[in-house]
Specification:
Layout lengths: L3 E2 L2 H4 L3 H7 L4 E6 L2 E14 L26 E6 L3 E7 L7 E14 L6 E2 L7 H7 L17 E5 L9 E4 L16 E4 L4
Antiparallel strand pairs: 1-8, 2-3, 2-8, 3-6, 3-10, 4-5, 5-6, 6-7, 9-10
Length: 191
């Protein structure tokens, strides 16, 4: 690992800023003697109870209480009975918000922490990236940290504003006017 591990102060900001600033950061996961790493390429912001696309739009439940917790906590949930979705809690404690990690690139795996081997499999979707990086619901409600084996680092990859595209969030057609919010951020494809 090189670079600085992002701490609670990085996530204790406006959800949309965090979602955008996560682009180009490196996601690490330690699991069963292996270290997985990949660069975050796509995120979505979910911001408050008024956001009809947010899981907290109906208030706090046992499932969503993690979104009201401290920034930098992990929220992993299952959809369609098969895909685990990775989110990071943002804002101040008590305000429900999180960033969904929708895609990563340049997946690599190491067994010694030094030599990383590229893995050429698709990671361009939230279910694909969690499967490929062995990220599951056992991490739900934990803190992003080296000790918990899941963390994000800033390795100094510069992301110019012109390289970022915004768009509507995916799979939230039920959310009325909120489905049109341009709160999905992604790195433009390299030509």
């Amino acid at each position: 690992m090189k670079g600085k591990i992002l701490d609670e102060s990085f996530f204790a900001r406006d959800t949309r800023e965090v979602a955008k600033d996560l682009l180009g950061k490196t996601l690490y996961h330690h699991k069963d003697g292996k270290i997985y790493k990949a660069v975050i390429t796509e995120t979505e912001a979910y911001h408050g109870e008024e956001d009809s696309a947010c899981h907290c739009s109906k208030g706090k439940t046992p499932r969503t209480e993690i979104m009201y917790d401290r920034p930098g906590k992990i929220y992993v949930y299952l959809i369609y009975g098969m895909y685990e979705m990775l989110n990071f809690v943002t804002m101040n404690e008590g305000f429900p918000a999180a960033v969904l990690i929708r895609g990563v690139k340049d997946l690599q795996v190491s067994e010694d922490g030094k030599n990383f081997v590229p893995v050429k499999i698709p990671t361009d979707g939230p279910g694909k990236l969690t499967k490929r990086m062995e990220i599951g619901r056992g991490l739900n409600k934990k803190e992003l940290s080296l000790e918990n084996g899941l963390y994000v680092t800033d390795e100094g990859l510069p992301i110019p504003e012109k390289q970022i595209s915004t768009g509507k969030r995916i799979g939230v057609d039920y959310a009325g006017e909120w489905k049109h919010k341009p709160w999905r951020y992604s790195l433009k494809k390299e030509k």
